[in-house]
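Hi, here's the filled form for the chain we discussed.

Project: internal
Contact: R.S.
Residues: 327
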Amino acid sequence: MDLYHKTVIITGGAGFLGKRIVQELQDQGAKVLIPRKSQVDFTNFDQTKTFINTHPADIIIHSAALYGGLGINERMPAEIYDINTRMLLNLFKASIDENGKPKFEKFVTIGSACAYPSILGTNMSEEKMWDGPVDKSVQNYGEVKKAMETLGHVYRNQYGLKSIHLPLATMYGEGDTFNPDRSHVPAAMIRRFVEAVQSNKTEEELWGVPDTVREFMYVGDAAQGIVKAIKEFDGDPNTEDQSKYTLNIGTGKGTTIDELAKTAAQLAGYQGTISYNGRSPGQKEKALNVQRIQKLLNWTTPTSLQDGLQKTITWYQANKEHADQRF
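And the returned structure, exactly as it came back:
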């Protein structure tokens, strides 16, 4: 699909990932519409339908979500589930006209590794999404992301809506959320180490267990992979099950929390000791299998963890006051 002169709606287009997707789309010559909260509440069906009907577009990307680290998932599980579910259902329903025809050439849902069964560990491949339950620590968020694949499947079958589902690894980068209530592991660590340097601390205790394995992807790479998938991916010709239109985007490389911490500490200039409080992080290991995107699109993430963290830390040090206030 050539994106030149295509009109694209992107929910969450002003957010951490959304801004990067917008830039990638504009670089391809697309016209991008970014709905604002003052314009439309996607948890309200009538408002969602009105916005879509009054803003004709060729493609819609659903990137908006209420999300965060384990802390916010523990405190607000019902709210996260409710808001994300209603947005998802309303957007799909509003994408079909009164004659049962799709309003878009392509509907793109942005998913998460949280949707995969915890038993898969570091081999979360597309065809295994339904091989078991999501980890209970992220159930409220992961189940909604899992439903994205099902909705895309049933709307394609009944209405002919061409949709693809793109699960992502945990992201980090400039413009991330560094507020402790919502930040993911990389941003939380970066803030701790930068502040430790500023206050001359020599000891830093981190949350979790050092040998926990996670996958971390630079946000710019995620946006690049998403736009490439929009242009080139419309199903795996070698698969006929529900996973046919799902495409993982990630590094495919697991990193221990201790490796991440030591790298971030060194780049931030922290030279003190690092310890862990031993609290359970949920599942022990989690990383996407990215063989499908490598094979079909010949694409891998171009940014190393070292380079991505350096960019993020440099940006955070220069924008700390503003970044800390962002929720």
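Let me know if anything looks off before we file it.
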